Amino acid sequence: MRSALILTENPELARKVKDALPDGLLSFTVARGELERTLRTVPVDIVIMEVSGPKDLELLELCRSVAQSCTMLGIRPEEEFWEPDYKLFKLCDFVLKEPLSRSEISGAVEKALEKRRLLQQVQVLDLLRGSHPQSSPLRDLSAVSYIMKGFSRFLGTGFDLARLTEIFLDEVWQLLSPGKIVLLLKDFSSPVYRVHSYKGIPGPHIERIELKEGEGLPLWLSLEGRILHHDEASSDLLSLEARRDMELLQSIVVVPLIAKGRLVGILGLGRRVTGPPYSREELETLFTLGGHVAAAIQDIQLHRQIEYQKAYIERILSGMSSGVVNIDRREIVTFFNRRAGEILGKEASEILGKDLRHLPSPLGDILYETLREGRSYWKRTVELLPERRPLEVSTYPLRDGEEIVGSVMLLDDISDRVKLEEERIRSERLDLLHMVVGWIAHEVKNPLVSVQTFVELLPERYDDPEFREKFQEVVTREVSRLDGLVEKLVALTEGVSYEFRRGDITPVLEGLVRELRGKTNHSIELSLKQLPPVRHDPAQLSKAFRYILDYVLAEVPPGSPVSVSVSSGEDVVVHISSPSLKLSPEQAVKLFDPFQKGALLDLGLCASRKILEDHGGSISVETRAKKVRFTIKLPKEEGDGETSDIGS
To answer: Is residue 573 part of a domain?
Structure first.
């Protein structure tokens, strides 16, 4: 059974580490004062230690001196008040930093245990070498291959490229004893292979060597996929270029490092210092090992690319003008940019690595809903409690295939925008109020002037019968006009009380047309036919039709024809038109908005539309070449009902 020693004064961290340990691993926590005694009395495979300051480095050195073969995993706190030096990374095999997820701790522990296992196998190999000092380089080559393959798999799980290549070259140097060795790796950002590390080659020129991807030695190895000897007989141009590159690298054998069909690196070997030339078995073993190392290098380069892209994206997000907050599937905040801190008045240290409940309400609730239900919000306005500051938020679920693994929120402080909008609305309301008051004052003043004039003359001409008759006529007309104005305003603002009934609307039209024919010299033509019943208030519906007819009769010359017709389909339709009515499309658009600048000011049409909409209907106006037509639509009442007789 494997064992792990946990050294931390943070109970929460200790619990988190224990929860992340794999099954079958014995773990125990000790105080700092008991560390040395525990290491001397209990076999330990891995030490997991929180390193929060220089004094902890002394404990790490103690661990190394007492338990040299155990692997060390250091955990740095989220907030550090010291600058970790090279000793930390030299003493620890792995170094992690808070905040940590369960998977990160578990992965690091698995790597540490794998390294511990491989180191034990290397120790066994060293013992075998010590018991057979006179053996040849071919001795126990299968055992060497097994150990090296396992070692390369361990290295493939790490992300330290320099350490990987150093150990790889040391092992090759120890096993094969080449006089010179050089390793070239594919450049991350350009199509060339550059010297990464070397041994036994003098002079700085070796570091400046670059081999292009599609030429010479790299091209030959990519095409052939096998080991190349310098004395291999071939006279083609590509082989000659490859041998010239080998001479540049001072190598007699090159081994391709291939992973997933791609040439990741090139290993060059000079002549052996002592002993026979490289054997076929040795080179085949090295070729196999090279494949494992190539896979490890490819993984490290991919990890570096991901880390670079992650850092690049985080720099972009940190500089965004919007706040960005991200939570993972555990409901822990994993990203909190500078702007989010400014908007919420929080430091990143107060939020990062904490539960989403540390976010102000209602932001945490919205992020939780997006995480659990996959529901996105787009520019939703919320109020930040307790100061009720308006924010505009958008959320999106983060998916791994079909599974939701987190959610992200974009937030903006829209306080200034809301204030500007409120000021704009207030200004528009004042402008509208001024316009309405002015319009009403004008409409009321005209009849009042007429009434006032007659009232002033009344004492002088009271005995004049003709004057009294004229006075009665004028006052009655102007008071009726004022009453009609008030009636329209009430219909528009307060609304009216309706007494709906189900029935025919043709009596309403007939009565209205009959009344208007007696009061005007216009020719009003009424064309009726059988109609389905309509739910309506006869008195109010009559007013709606009257206001429309009043407008038409006032706008056309005396004696002009005006027609009123009906039809039915999905709705009951009433058409009111006149060939003498002139109206431009621009005027038609403004016709039902009497307070719009430049519109035809007629409050009656607006009152008509309000009454018709209260009936569930609508009104529109069409401007044609030969006439202007108003179209009124009213919904039919389903079922049996009254029908109208055709009349005129």
So the answer is: yes
Q: What are the tokens at 437? A: 């008051």
For residue 217, the domain's CATH number is 3.30.450.40
**Continuous segment of H or E residues that includes residue 19:** helix 11-20
Please report, for the domain that includes residue 358, its CATH number: 3.30.450.20
Distance CA 620, CA 232 (A): 94
- Domains identified in the chain, total number: 5
Per the structure, the complete domain to which residue 41 belongs is given by 2-117
- Say if strands 561-568 and 571-578 run parallel, antiparallel, or are unpaired: antiparallel
Q: Which of 492, 516, 549 is the last residue of a domain?
A: 492
132 in any annotated domain: no
Which CATH number does the domain housing residue 577 bear? Answer: 3.30.565.10
Q: What is the mean pLDDT of residues 343-351?
A: 88
- Collapse the DSSP code of 234 into the 3-class scheme (helix H, G, I; strand E, B; otherwise coil) and give the result: coil
Between 160 and 168, residue with greater pLDDT: 168
- CA–CA gap between residue 546 and residue 559 (Å, rounded): 18
d(CA 454, CA 234): 127
For the record, the structure tokens of 621 come out as 């106006």
* Predicted confidence (pLDDT) per residue in 259-303, tens digit: 888 999 999 999 988 778 888 888 888 888 888 888 888 888 787
Q: Among 413, 448, 471, identify where a domain stops.
A: 413
Distance CA 637, CA 648 (A): 24
Instruction: Please state which of the ranges 165-169, 479-483, 501-505, 558-562 shows the lowest mean pLDDT.
Output: 479-483
Of 37, 89, 79, 83, nearest in space to 62 by CA: 37
Cβ atoms within 10 Å, residue 48: 28
pLDDT at 54: 80
Kindly report the three-state secondary structure assignment for every residue of 520-584. CCCEEEEECCCCCCEEECHHHHHHHHHHHHHHHHHHCCCCCEEEEEEEECCEEEEEEEECCCCCC
Partners of 384 in the beta sheet?
389
Query: pTM for the full model?
Result: 0.39
Distance (Å) of CA 594 to CA 56, 351, 638: 82, 55, 36
pLDDT of residue 644: 39
Residue 131 covered by a domain = no
Same domain, 392 and 533: no
CB-CB contact of 27 with 16 (8 Å):
no
Dist. CA 288–CA 283, nearest whole Å: 9
Same domain, 88 and 151: no
Nearest CA to 112 out of 188, 5, 256 is that of: 5
Instruction: Give me the pLDDT at residue 133, please.
Output: 43
Place of tokens 């000659």: 240
Phi/psi at 363 (5° precision) = -65, -45
Give yes or no for residue 441 having a pLDDT over 50: yes
Whole-angstrom Cα distance, residue 123 to residue 125?
5
Q: What is the pLDDT of residues 549-584, one digit of tens each?
A: 988 888 888 888 999 999 988 899 999 999 888 888
Tokens of 549: 């007819």
pLDDT in tens, 126-138: 555 554 444 444 4
- Dist. CA 16–CA 330, nearest whole Å: 13
Torsional class of 48: left (φ above 0), alpha (ψ -120 to 50), beta (otherwise): beta
Positive or negative, the CA dihedral 512, 517, 522, 527 is positive
d(CA 210, CA 296): 22
- Whether residue 403 is found in the same domain as residue 424: no
Output the average pLDDT for the chain.
81
Q: Which residue has the tokens 């990519």?
A: 222
The label of the residue with tokens 């539309």 reads 609
